[in-house]
Design a protein that fits this description.
Elements: E1 24-25, H1 33-37, H2 42-48, E2 57-60, H3 70-80, E3 91-94, E4 104-107, H4 116-120, E5 126-129, E6 135-138, H5 148-152, E7 155-156, E8 161-163, E9 168-170, H6 192-196, E10 202-205, H7 235-241
Antiparallel strand pairs: 1-7, 2-10, 3-4, 5-6, 8-9
Length: 242
């Protein structure tokens, strides 16, 4: 039975526990995928969607990524208690067949304005958590492992991933439910991947990124470079010579 889109799933109040260029839109995992792909611009987003927007979003800078996988290791440790790249909710892909800047791609959950993972979840396990800034997250206790959220994700690679240990889906929750984190996570705390990144290639922002393509989430995060001093023929050097 179709869900009422005017209503956030019943379990929303529960709480348990520089390179870019690779985005393919999922063919037709579910009817209406285009809603997420062609979502409105930030200023119009809340008016256009019937779902509350997430308070924060994780963006990246693939061109500046060192490809060290530190973010993935940190993610799996704080969520699952073990260093396991397969259990990281952020995915970094390196291609030996590509050269810079297309050799590294960072894939983060977009916290979509029209969250198809939430809309299509049959149990409400994938939900919008009002008490945690409307972050789209998965309640493991209610997940039945049907992979609907994974197949519903309109971007490839799909952002919810399969936990082969528990047989359930997991996705980025901005470190809201991190039992092994020694810091406070969530929208009012820190994110393990951001803290672990040695290249400053990850950042959490409050404004909804542009939804039209990947550039809204994968952008230049580096500060402007300071101009190099003019050593050859610098005024001071000339003055000394005279």
């Amino acid at each position: 039975m179709a869900k009422d889109k005017n209503k956030v799933p019943d379990n929303t109040e529960k709480k348990e526990f520089s390179r870019r260029d690779f985005l393919a839109i999922g063919g037709a995992a579910v009817a209406g995928s285009a809603l997420a792909v062609c979502a409105p611009l930030p200023s119009e987003a809340q008016e256009k969607t019937e779902y509350p927007l997430s308070a924060k979003y994780l963006i990246c800078d693939s061109k500046n990524c060192a490809g060290c996988y530190g973010c993935m290791i940190a993610c799996s440790i704080v969520h699952e208690g073990q260093a396991n790249l397969s259990l990281a909710r952020i995915q970094v892909h390196r291609s030996v067949l590509e050269s810079y800047p297309a050799d590294i791609q960072i894939n983060t959950c977009r916290q979509c304005p029209e969250p198809l993972c939430v809309i299509n979840c049959p149990t409400g396990a994938c939900h919008i958590s009002k008490e945690n800034g409307n972050v789209r997250m998965i309640n493991a206790d209610e997940c039945i492992g049907c992979k609907t959220c994974i197949n519903s994700c309109p971007v490839i690679p799909h952002r919810p991933i399969w936990n082969h240990v528990t047989g359930k889906a997991i996705k980025c929750d901005l470190c809201t439910d991190t039992p092994y984190y020694n810091k406070k996570g969530g929208i009012n705390g820190s994110q393990a991947c951001v803290e672990a990144c040695v290249a400053n290639a990850l950042k959490v922002v409050t404004e909804l990124p542009d939804q039209k393509d990947i550039s809204g989430y994968d952008r230049n995060l580096q500060p402007p470079r300071k101009p190099m001093p003019n050593f050859m023929g610098a005024p001071k050097a000339k003055a000394k010579q005279e």
